[in-house]
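Our collaborator T.R. sent over the components below with a one-line note: 'Predict the complex.' Nothing else. No constraints on interfaces, no templates requested, no preferences about which chain binds where. So this is a plain run: every listed entity goes in together, and whatever single assembly comes back becomes the starting point for the next discussion.
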Amino acid sequence: MLNDFIDQFGPSTVGGLAAGAIYALIALGYTMVYGVLRLINFAHSEIFMIGTFSGLAVIMTLGVSEPQSGIALIGLLLLLSVVAMVGSGAAAVALEQIAYRPLRKKGSSRLAALISAIGASIFLQELFAIVVIPHLYDHPRGRDNIGTQQLLDKEPLFTLGNTDVRPDHLIVIVASIAMMIALDFFVNRSRIGRGIRATAQNPETAVLMGINIDRIVRITFFVGGCMAGIAGLLYLLQFEETRYNIGFVLGIKAFTAAVLGGIGNLRGALLGGLALGLIENWGAIFFGSAWKDVIAFTVLVVILMFRPTGILGESLQVARA
Amino acid sequence: MRPKIARLGGALAASMALTLTLAACGGGDSTEPAASGGGDSPTTLKIGFMGDLTGENSAIVIPPRNGAKLAIDEYNAKNPKIKVELVPYDSQGNPDQAVPLAQQAITQDKIVALIGPAFSGESKNVGPILEQGKIPSISASATNPDLSKNGWKYWHRLVATDAAQGKAVADFLAKATSAKKAYVIDDKQEYSVGIADVAFETLKAAGATIERDKIDQDGSDYSSTVTKVKAFAPDLIFYGGYYAQAGRLLKQLRTGGVKAAFASGDGSLDQNLVSGAGADAAEGAVVGCPCFIPYGVTEGPVKTFADNYKKAYNADPAIYATEGYDAATAFLQAIEKGHTTGEAINTYLSTVDFTGVSKPVKFGPDGELGATTIHIYRVKGGQITWLGDSTVAKLD
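Returned assembly:
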């Protein structure tokens, strides 16, 4: 048992961080929307899915047929990130406009919005499985996995002890932490960020202070969508595949990460995501991969018993408002 | 989302209740279809085909339907005295939908025989109804080992069970790779665990050191499993499960630097295994199946079948197409010999003995095939190719 742990600790840590980084990016979308609207946006997992498909569209259009390197790779990744962010961001804004705004305007209960979220999630999945994938992606079996071209060479960059560090892992971890820092600056330092925090803290007062809530909500969805888009791209880079329900499990994990870190708290999402990824992979060493989720959720329950609002607490609104 | 689970899956409680209801209202109609072909005008008999024809697993049910249709079209083209019509029943693979369809097939459409049901779950529910109606059935694809333990007299299948398959594939692998260390992985679904269990025991009995792990069928990050496999450094990996997960797992294993031979069962026998894993990662993967798909067969009656199939459907025969053709052929032989009632056809089936396109067709008293034939396939140059029967196939 101990030998297993020693043998597998390094690789598990790298795998856990890479998985956790993606959880964290998706978790941001849940956390921001929750912070501002007190709504769990269950269709966020589909925003992530749309991000992967936006990236896939670029890869197909450009006809990328072999792993890239150097300038070409950087250019490709930048283009992919822009398209994935815009695709997911636009989808998130449209989702808000169609599925949530009408309900919000009528002052309906939060439960109604929750049902609307679940409905939107199913709608988007089926839309892709039945219409988009067979017709736009030329893939008649819409529910199958769709593989993509490998984008970069995945030979290990360097080896620490028995741990291979692959370039895709490194890109995923570094890129997501960079995005997180950028977002943290945006929310804490910019004018719009102040508007987001103000709305999160007290919508009525925010309106009195001249904040256009509809605009803030739209921006919040857009930014959350962008993060999911980047997550989708990084996912594509690492796993080279997508499918209509790709967001389902990741969405649940990301939501869990958001709660673990403290929902509504941006830094909590990062911490929660990485912690969840690591706990899962370390737990799997001892109990087998079948128990991965059980271990992760047991830890979640234990942490929530002692810190009901998550590790860092629920605090988009009190984040130095 | 749950690929093919119905095929092997449980389908449980409902069947009990339904069986009881049926037992209560059966009985009335046992003397129907125009018994002897008498008179001058050619009679038409109906054979049903039941399975998921439009649902998410239809990709493995349409080929046997096409195969059966081809056999029947060829038969009708000979202008026989009694013509045969194939009536489709689209159960969507759902055991609950299959039951009323079977009742309709027997009481209204008056079929004399049924090809299917395609999956194990629906077979379990429909079996008692066919017994009651005295309608013989041959399934081309239901592989759950327990089906033949119901004591049904009218039920048959043209494929070996999951258990027989797991054993034959593992025996083949043990011999062909002489693996000393093997790793067995499954995705926790009923079929997957069953076949992985059998492979595990068989490889262990063959003397390999063995470890085991499970992946999540809906998950996408299998890095913890890859880490374990890498630390164990096996020569052989056996995966029990379906092609979508198999492709994903195989790709991640290869990217993670695991070079061991990879093998799996019929759930993974699909070209999407190759596209999912990527042609390089999939190269050399071994897949076993109780089914016979004529990948790369260039001569003999199988080639004729494949050509005719291609002409009729503009596609190569896919999984279970040959079995569907043979199932129909068995019924057609009975009809040709003048047996026109369910009961007479069923009696004839116990004597049937011919070499079909898929395998030798001969049924034991429990409805299972007389001899187990498991075929071995391998990915070569990005294409799945047939290596042969597991007792004679060679890996290089």
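Summary for T.R.: The beta strands of chain A are 146-147, 158-160, 163-165, 241-242.
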